[in-house]
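Weekly puzzle thread! Below is a chain. First person to post its structure in token form gets bragging rights.
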Amino acid sequence: MSKPDFTKIAVQKQVEAMGCATFEVGMFNPQYQDKQTGEIGERMELRTWSKDTLLKDETIGHLKLKNMKGCNIYIRPAGEHRLTLVDDLKGATVDQMKATGFQPAAVVETSPNNYQAWLKHGQELPKDVSTAAARLCAEKFEADHGSADWRHFGRLAGFTNRKPKYQMESGHFPFVKLREHSGQEYDHRKELIQQAEGVIAQERATEQQRREAWQNRPAAQERQGLKTIDDFRHDGRYGGDNTRVDLAYATYAVSHGVPSHEIEGALASRDLSHKGSPKRQQEYIDRTIGKATERARGGVGR
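Winning reply:
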């Protein structure tokens, strides 16, 4: 009688608890060697598989081999989905989640006494709302904010955690363990989704107000003979590269004492939706002004 495949059992229970039809599986190799150049660096090999394909013996065997050769195995839903990953939790925090109406659909122990929890919303969320929900959960449960976005990878149970710091004296690595797999939707999902939608609405309203304020601004800069951001956008030296334009204008504006809120409005006067959520857009603006300030202090752009 053949022995049960505990890895396959763990994978099956986890994907069933997550409840998705299609998954993206990442095989991350921190020591990948390029066959042509010989250079060593990080590499994420990504595959999109249906649940049925993921559970095939040959797929599980392939992942086992990758894991044995040093890859860490990760999973996330493919496309927009109904889940939120809450990362870097202690066992007491998982208990707190359950006690306060945020019961996880699945709990994965990624390393000794360190957990990831998947929350199931019961409905598919748009990317921005999903990211806002993840940020709210990270804040509420003091989880990893760096993992709080709409499509972050979690670990796949049944494989070893290959981070060097977890290697044991025997040379082995600890297994990633599936601790809970109820597949249930948490009690306070409607309230959290409403809160996330409110966050997005407020961010959009703030962004719109900033754009309108810039569009309706007094013509002080023009009266003083200062260049506007449109002058930089029409300058052929930047070749239509809006990122270069933004930094060049911001450096010039900072150097000439233009108020920060006016610089923000100018940068936001073009469509920044490709940068991501309103929060990501604001981070881009803040980062650009920060770089411009450093350059202006060094005498660049005067």
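Puzzle host: Confirmed. Bonus trivia for everyone else. The chain has a mean pLDDT of 90.
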